[in-house]
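User
Take a look at the entry that follows and flag anything odd:
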Amino acid sequence: MPTKPTIVLVHGFWGGAAHWAKVIVELNGRGYSSIHAVENPLTSLADDAERTRKMVAQVDGPVLLVGHSYGGAVITEAGDLPNVVGLVYIAAFAPDAGESPGQISQEHPPAAIANLAPDSDGYLWVKPDLFHESFSQDLDPSESLVMAVTQKAPLASTFGDNVTAPAWKNKPSWYQVSTQDRMIDPDNERRMAQRMNPRKIIELDASHASLASQPGPVVDLIDEAAAAVSG
């Protein structure tokens, strides 16, 4: 039986590694014994990619990188390491060379873009009272409340950081579109997915927080990708 790859999960803006909680439990239940979740500083794409590369470099063996939201830009930038065998995008940015998440968002502004607010230190927040309707409308309001209160805001400048050499041009990829996404326009997700020519695209009737609202189907896609890269 093929050995399962190590799964390295990369979070996006307005959340930390714990956003993957339900996915982690589901992966563990399906026999994945080597799972890591990066805690990125969200200070620049270069910083976040370097943090992710360092975690991948600690793994002895093949790694499947999984990115949510802005985490997709991170795995696009950091996925060039030789032991990265595949990339899975969960309602995520997948920029091409010279593109940034901010540029992609401006081309097709998401429904909740007006619900973002900068602070005096240069960090960009989802307005807490609008977090549920913006980010995670298909979760229980109490779960959204915890996400809103514990959100990890990025430096706003990170939105403008360009990808240099997209790993999806050289690594097999998979993509999950959230059809009710209010943080990345669903048509933007479809466009980014299609130009990657991924092994598979799935669409879920889900918010931006599909990793929390539909962990089963999300892990189905991760599991399929892991099986494919395991030969």
